[in-house]
Amino acid sequence: MEIIEKLENADRLSYEDGVKLYDLDLFTLAHYANKIRLEKHGKKTYFNINRHINPTNVCKDVCKFCAYSANRKNPNQWTMTHEDILKTVKNSSKNGIKEVHIVSAHNPHTGLQWYMDIFKKIKDEFPNIHIKALTAAEIHFLSEEYDKSYQEIIDTMKAHGVDSMPGGGAEIFDEKIRKKICRGKVKSHEWLEIHKLWHKAGMQSNATMLFGHVESREHRIDHMLRLRNLQDETGGFNAFIPLVFQTENNYLNIKEALTGQEILKTYAIARIFLDNIANIKAYWATSTVKLALIAQEFGANDVDGTIEKESIQSAAGAKSARGVALQEFVDLIKNSGFTPVERDSVYNEIKVW
Ligand code: SF4
After folding, report:
1. Please, what is the average pLDDT of the chain?
2. CB of 66 shorter than 6 A to ligand 1
3. Which among 78, 143, 344, 352 is most buried, taking Cβ atoms within 10 Å?
């Protein structure tokens, strides 16, 4: 079989090859994905001690898959004050967090400075905490709303202390699917352009893919290919994070969640296909902790972090609202036969647990 020969030779795979990978059985995919994982990372599984903060759920966009935004099936609006956010960071700093991960809805009522000033305040008070903030979708929103170029927003983020960008807002790059699920949001080429500018400014970011809704397997490979092409050019992506679509409280009306088999196949294919992105993250907030642990055998070498509190995926039915305690996290990784390695936000090793 030609595809097996390519896998044996570790050849770079074309789009057509990528689609063919889905025809292979789960254990064949696991074999090749795990082989690459072991070559790159051995038995190490990375995590970080972080805190997610979602400061507002008021949004001018209306993505059909979203359960987080207040405009739709969720009538409870919130917008945190900067004092609330600082208090949250302060409390979490006592738990030893190394990163705050701040993403929000597209709130047209707060002003550009509300978004930016909080980063500066956090940096001034907690200079050792890494700030990962503002998805490309948020940058696009701020650029349109306040008539600034992407470059101006990026320069302002850097000046206010943002250290890296999260990978959200990518959803699925195929333009037709995007029109169906998130018309009005940042377009695919704009998402890629923003990350390219961020990388060219010497900064690093992550990339996500939301899967398990109305997209096909072909769309997933197309998505990964576009990321691989940009990574060839800039090398700025730290990690690829496939996000499993959560079925509750949204307008897509998807009755059946993805099977564990399809999720694991997709992790394995990501590991095989994305030969230039070092880290594949099984983000447990969308896959469940159990499946994220199994995904370690299917190419994933990162399971994100302790999170502490999570509002976006849990609004759509995920069991991630309260995070996972550090020791429990470490024990889960160890008991599944891997070595827990605490990392910082850009994958420098901090401690082997
Ligand atoms: S996914 Fe983000 S941009 Fe879309 S409606 Fe939800 S909060 Fe707004």
Report:
1. 93
2. yes
3. 143
